[in-house]
Amino acid sequence: MLRIGPLTLKTPLLLAPIAGHCDLPFRLLCREQGGVGLASTDLLNSRAILNGSAKTLELAATCAADDPCGMQLYGNGDDPLPEAACWAVDHGAHLIDINMGCPVDKVAKKHGGSLLLRDCSATTLLAERIVKAVERHSGGRVPVTAKMRLGWDPEHFVAPRLARDLESIGIQAVTVHGRWTVQFFSGKADWARIGEVVNAVRDIPVIGNGDITEPMHVISMLRETGCDGVMIGRGALRTPWIFRHAWELLQMQTPDPTFLREPELHEKLMMVRRHLALLEERGYSERHALHTMKLRMGWYGKSMPGTKPLREQFRTASNVAEMWRAIEECVLIGHSGGLGAG
Ligand SMILES: Cc1cc2nc3c(=O)[nH]c(=O)nc-3n(C[C@H](O)[C@H](O)[C@H](O)COP(=O)(O)O)c2cc1C
């Protein structure tokens, strides 16, 4: 079992924050598919949280079924991160994660994210202030973690040292995305370097992240790096059942992917339907639901042969009612065996 301070996760598999994609409906969808040990909000601006920005509050939304839920914050030493972390504790966070990896200019040029990898001493002091505030505010109930990259560039491989320093001030787990900031998302994640971070810390768990697109990759990452948990991002956007499959493999004495059962087309259609329903149930605007499902149907559709007309209907839909009609019709045809390959 993966333990992060006082929190014991049911599986060592984590859904990565992916800004614009891992909102509450998607987190719930992945949880319902099975195998998710922890899911987090996308990165939240500490000032925007405290100013009550409607957009940020929507991003911070959680609910009883979204459990356990991490809330990820970003900011720099001048930002009210400790206060925002306490706000998050009061609004349902079971874990606070500090973003030390975002490479996007808007964040990393001045506000935080990967910028925090450039001055590790200052970052450790900042993390210590957050840890102390959360410890006091939650009575030790809520752990604080950090998600980092290897370093800004290959000349600055700071992750092992930073992880060890963060451990010494009370950070209770680190996630390492095996890329440099300058890489953004290109090239391959360097799992060997993740292994070096595992060797650098004393007791806290290290969660490996980067390029897991098949359930079997989870087994390989655990073996190759010695990490304690695995975080999956882009791989889950196409196949939200990847956590269930990876968890099934982890429970096999000899993990063998040929024993995994690919969901039937009907189950995938029901999943698309559920995603749409969750967006509505959670009160997201029609505009957001339309935008999300157009994108998602394109991604989910890649493993749904015979659904080209459905994908086209989603792509051209001008309202959610049209999407509902299209999916219900497709579910009915699917039931009667009318969907073929192609
Ligand atoms: C579009 C996009 C948005 C992302 N947003 C966040 C974010 O809000 N917080 C964060 O820590 N990482 C973010 N990431 C990084 C992912 O969490 C993850 O570290 C990265 O995609 C590598 O994992 P993967 O190969 O499993 O996708 C983002 C990645 C992408 C592609």
Structure, described:
This protein is α/β, with parallel strands linked by helices. The chain is 46% helix and 14% strand. The chain is built from 15 helices and eleven strands. It has helices spanning 24-33, 46-51, 54-59, 81-90, 105-108, 120-138, 159-168, 191-200, 215-225, 234-238, 242-251, 265-281, 286-300, 308-316, 320-335, and strands spanning 2-4, 7-9, 13-15, 38-40, 44-45, 69-74, 95-100, 144-151, 174-180, 206-209, 229-232. The strands form two sheets. It has an eight-stranded parallel barrel with strand order 3-4-6-7-8-9-10-11, surrounded by seven helices. Helix 1 (24-33) packs antiparallel against helix 12 (265-281), helix 9 (215-225) crosses helix 11 (242-251) and helix 13 (286-300) runs antiparallel to helix 14. The longest helix is centred in the middle third of the chain and has 19 residues, at 120-138. The chain is globular, with a radius of gyration of 20 Å. The N and C termini lie far apart (42 Å). Bound molecules: flavin mononucleotide. Flavin mononucleotide binds at residues 16-19, 42-43, 72, 99, 101-102, 147, 177, 185, 209-212, 232-235.
Regarding quaternary structure, how should these chains be classified? Answer: single chain
Rg measurement, Å: 20 Å
Amino- and carboxy-terminal Cα gap: 42 Å
- Helical run tally: 15
- SSE-based structural type: alpha/beta
In which order are the strands of the major sheet placed?
3-4-6-7-8-9-10-11
Give the SSE string.
EEEHEEHHEHEHHEHEHEHEHHHHHH
Biggest sheet overview: 8 strands, parallel, barrel
Bound molecules: flavin mononucleotide
Query: Helicity level, as a percent range?
Result: 40-55%
Beta strand %: 5-15%
What is the averaged pLDDT score? 96
Cα shape: globular
Question: Uncertain runs with pLDDT below 50, 5 residues or more?
Answer: none
Question: How many DSSP E strands?
Answer: 11
